[in-house]
Amino acid sequence: MARVDQFSDFNRSLKNLYLMDVSHLESIADNVRLATPSLLQEWGVLGNEVEAHYNDYLNLVVIKKEYVTNGRVKNYQDFITQKEAYSFSVFASTAFHEMTHADFDIFIEENDSDFHLFIDYTLKSWVKKNFKSFSSKITMHEILGYTASEIIMMLENDLTNTMTTYGYNFHASKCFSENALKNIAKKLNLEKDFKFENKGENSKYYLKSSPWSVYVKGKEVDLLKTPLPKSYKYTIYEYFRKTYKLPKDTNEFIQKLNNSKHLEKVQQCYENIL
From CA 162, how far away is CA 197, in angstroms rounded? Predict the structure, then answer.
């Protein structure tokens, strides 16, 4: 199996669920190999407690064996089949975290870009000043990795909250009861061919996705006590936003949902009601 094919189904799930552009993830996948912890244990590279890991020496993305099937990373449909659709986002956040470590090594550090300069000078200086006892390189790796994890969970929350508000249990692929839908239609003043609207807070994603803490070799780097400057949070999220065509805030994400199959699923619930 080609390297990229080991991750393509998983990447496609991120595209379909969270409306991400995954072309860069495909490029990362083309430069790494998939391995499971058991394989690396046989090689003596890892111990027994590893769940997910990126090995920069061997360019391996290590995924726990239960999340790999037929030589590829499981996708959302696999989780549905296992009746564990609700837990896909947790796994996806971990996998995206590890792919971001690979991105750091393979692309970010090797490219002569403004973001590389930000990482190599601005962020590195800040980390060295504020967290002297930690490796600056590993800490920067983890700041990006944990940001990637938070992005997946952030999109998952806004997706499922929006669908729930409009009467659809997303991970059960099921409309609410007819009576519940009628009440929602009345409450939200829904008309035929309605669109999603933000019924909550319009969160700035560069703030919402910034981690409160990261872990370096098992020790906590407290980013709540010593927070990243807002401009740093913005620069980091902008890298992800531009690379994966992400929205800047909740409102923009909901507009993307309005141009997706997610809206069609919910509209179908109201075909005999509106």
Answer: 8
The answer to whether residues 184 and 167 touch, using CB atoms and an 8 Å cutoff, is yes
Burial label, 61 (beta-carbon count in 10 A; 0-12, 13-18, 19+): buried
What is the domain extent for residue 154? 111-274
Q: Are residues 38 and 127 in the same domain?
A: no
Q: Which residues in the chain land under pLDDT 70?
A: 1-4, 38-52
d(CA 174, CA 95): 27
- The DSSP letter of residue 219 is E
Say yes or no: 122 and 171 in one domain. yes
- Pure H helices in the chain: 5-18, 23-29, 37-43, 76-81, 88-103, 114-117, 124-130, 136-165, 178-187, 205-208, 230-244, 250-257, 261-269
Cβ atoms of residues 115 and 100 within 8 Å: no
pLDDT digits (tens, 9 = 90+) for 141-170: 999 999 999 999 999 999 999 999 999 999
Task: Check the CA dihedral 96-102-104-110 and report its sign.
Answer: negative
250, part of any domain: yes
Helix (H) or strand (E) holding 108: none
Residue 98 within a domain: no
Please check whether residues 183 and 67 belong to one and the same domain. Answer: no
Residue 2 placed within a domain: yes
Phi and psi (nearest 5°) for 178? -60, -45
Distances, alpha carbon 164 to alpha carbons 65, 159, 196, in Å: 32, 9, 11
**Number of domains making up the chain:** 2
Strand bridging mode 33-35 / 60-63: parallel
